[in-house]
Each structure stands twice: as structure tokens, then as C-alpha cells.
Amino acid sequence: MSAAAKLAKYIPMDEYKKSRMTGVLKAAGIGMTPEIYAAYAMVKAGAILLGVIPCLFLLPLLALFMVFLAVLVYF
User: 8 near 29, Cβ under 8 Å?
Assistant: First the structure.
């Protein structure tokens, strides 16, 4: 979460998207700002993508699954 807080400073977000995401987060009961939530999704996807490196050496077919999983977690 600390990495997401540091990354959130650099995420550009226009006012419409920010207000819309604030409403969605409030309705879902998530107590984060839109920037931190977007950064948290990026950090989680990046952490999963780091798992691709060992998969390339041990099980190359699993690397494709890890990339697909990272994209799913991000969106």
C-alpha cells in the first residue's frame, strides 16, 4: 500500500473520471481516493508480472498465464 501511495502522486486523472470513480468507490464501501485505488491496481499487477521472470526459466507456458492474470487484476 505504501508503494501505491507514492505512485498515486504521479497518476493524472481528470475531474470527470475522478468524480465518477469517487462515487463508485463510495458505493462499494472502499475508503480510498481514486488515485490511490488506481495506483494500487497498478502495483498489484506489477507484482504479478514480477512472477513472470522465474516462470520464463522454469515453466515458459505458465508465463503466459501470469501475464493474462496481471491484465485481469489490473482491470
Answer: no
Task: Please state the pTM of the whole predicted model.
Answer: 0.82
27-73 residue pLDDT tens: 999 999 999 999 999 999 999 999 999 999 999 899 999 999 999 99
Distance in angstroms (rounded) separating the CA atoms of residues 28 and 25: 5
What is the DSSP secondary-structure string of 2-67?
A: HHHHHHHTT----HHHHHHHHHHHHHHT--S-HHHHHHHHHHHHHHHHHTHHHHHHH-HHHHHHHH
As a whole number of Å, the end-to-end CA separation of the chain is 18
Give the integer Cα–Cα distance in Å for 70 and 44: 8
Only one residue has cell 505458465, namely 62
